Amino acid sequence: MQELSPIVSIQQNALGLYTGVIQTKDGNILIDSPYRTDDRRTWVNLPTKSDAIFLVLLDTQYDRTLSAKGCDCILVSQSDYLLPAKPRQQAVKLQEELLGAGDGHEQVSSSSRPYAPEISFDQNMNLFFGGAEVLLEHHPGSNVAGIWAILPQEKVIFVGDSVMVNQPPFLAYSDPAAWVADMKLLASKAFKGYQIVSSRAGLVTQDQVRAMGKLMTFIQTSIASLQEKHADLEAYLELIPRILKRIEYSPDESELFFNRLRWGLTTYYELNQA
């Protein structure tokens, strides 16, 4: 585990997510799950002096949902966690292909159906527990139910999939315009001096936040133009090579990233048609 402050640590779980553990005198608060029910070995590195009480789910991504399965905690999510509209058959088929290709560190076979949270909120929620303060804010840019978990006393912020490094974004349940606004906020003085934790890259810098902002500005502008023209799905898929040109990645990741964007743009198109 990597310690960010006396009470905050992060580690990468079996599915590739960087997750957080906040230790308090009354129990642990988890930011996403650091383990998977069929791989308990990743649980052994957690602090054992107290049990996990709360589990904050930062969005609706498949691997995030899967890692929460069977966790004996109070689940906390944004209120839209169970509400994403179902994509049509084409997007479902592409998602199955994507998971088969291993979009994550391990192939998985469990259902991706979300689990009903015990606590949910619309815009903001303050979690005060065991002397720790965690501010939960709804940021729907990267996901309809996206959450940022902010620890102002520790100067740490968990931003989920809002910042991707050398990877294309997950666009299926995104709001590109809100995503651009999120990146401007994250790069502003409001979070100067904060340690920023990305679910896919761990600690990220302000320069990487600004780079993500530029990428999302390009994507948002391109999608807005297509929407104005009432373009068909093929026009959206033509964005894939243009997006990939703006990202540095290894050749063995090309198929994975192409499929991620293909599924994401297909789902986004199907959910946002007039």
Give helix % range. 25-40%
Q: Helix and strand string, N-terminal first?
A: EEEEEHEHEEEEEHEEHHHH
Q: What's the CATH topology label?
A: Metallo-beta-lactamase, Chain A
Number of strands: 13
Name of the CATH homologous superfamily? Ribonuclease Z/Hydroxyacylglutathione hydrolase-like
Mean pLDDT: 85
Biggest beta sheet attributes: 7 strands, mixed
Q: Globular, elongated, flat, extended or rod-shaped: what is the shape?
A: globular
Quickly count the domains: 1
Structural class: alpha/beta
Description:
With 274 residues, this protein is an alpha/beta fold. The protein has a single domain, classed as 4-Layer Sandwich (Metallo-beta-lactamase, Chain A). Helix content is 30%, strand content 22%. A seven-stranded mixed beta sheet has the order 1-2-3-4-5-6-7, with no helix packed on it. Strands 8-9-10-11-12-13 form a six-stranded mixed beta sheet. The model is unreliable at 38-44 and 104-113 (pLDDT under 50).
What secondary-structure arrangement, pairings included, does this model have?
Blueprint: E1 2-3, E2 8-12, E3 18-24, E4 27-31, E5 52-56, H1 62-67, E6 74-78, H2 89-100, E7 119-121, E8 124-129, E9 132-138, E10 147-151, E11 156-158, H3 176-186, E12 195-198, E13 202-204, H4 206-228, H5 233-237, H6 239-244, H7 254-271
Short description:
Helix content is 30%, strand content 22%.
Features:
alpha/beta; 274 residues; 7-stranded mixed sheet; 30% helix
